[in-house]
Write a structure and sequence with these properties.
Blueprint: H1 13-29, H2 34-49, E1 53-60, E2 63-70, E3 77-79, H3 83-91, E4 95-97, E5 115-123, E6 126-135, H4 143-157
Antiparallel strand pairs: 1-2, 1-6, 2-3, 4-5, 5-6
Helix pairs in contact: 1-2, 1-4
Length: 160
């Protein structure tokens, strides 16, 4: 696949996801390198949706360690069960946070981050990494984001 995404200009959020997911899947399907795939997924999501920050944290021992991302400098390590990312890992489920200041134990990697969604990526039954997406707007993520980002992470899981 060419390294260009084709997204309708006047598309709704759901239409953008519907257009981009098959293209991202095609982009990663022939590439065996995990970091290349994570990098392209982060770049594609940032390009299509203009997210403030989008990237991955990989499980290494008892911590999440920063992986490929797009956006400002980020926290390098997050402990199990800590912050939004660590909670998604511990609970093995997506965390949809409309206001990060209201999330108990939120880790403020950037004071500009206002809302967040974190989606776990599974290898078998265990969380292998999480996708972390931040917005500089309150309440910027909804069930549409959750549905499609979970689908995309399911596609990624098949490559692990």
């Amino acid at each position: 696949m060419a390294e260009t995404l084709f997204i309708p200009e006047a598309a709704t959020k759901a239409e953008k996801y519907n257009a981009s997911l098959p293209q991202i899947e095609a982009l990663i399907s022939g590439e065996p390198d995990l970091y290349a795939n994570l990098s392209n997924i982060a770049a594609a999501l940032k390009e299509v949706f203009g997210f403030f920050w989008v990237g991955f944290y990989l499980v290494k021992g008892d911590q999440l360690v920063l992986g490929p991302f797009q956006g400002p400098i980020a926290c390098t390590r997050i402990n199990f069960g800590k912050g939004v990312c660590g909670t998604a890992w511990k609970e093995k489920q997506t965390q949809l946070v409309p206001d990060v200041e209201a999330f108990p134990g939120h880790i403020a990697c950037s004071s500009a981050s206002k809302s967040e969604i974190v989606v776990p990526v599974f290898k078998g039954e265990e969380v292998a990494m999480v996708l972390d997406v931040d917005s500089d707007q309150l309440n910027d993520f909804d069930q549409i984001d959750q549905e499609y980002l979970e689908k995309l992470m399911g596609i990624l899981s098949k490559t692990l």
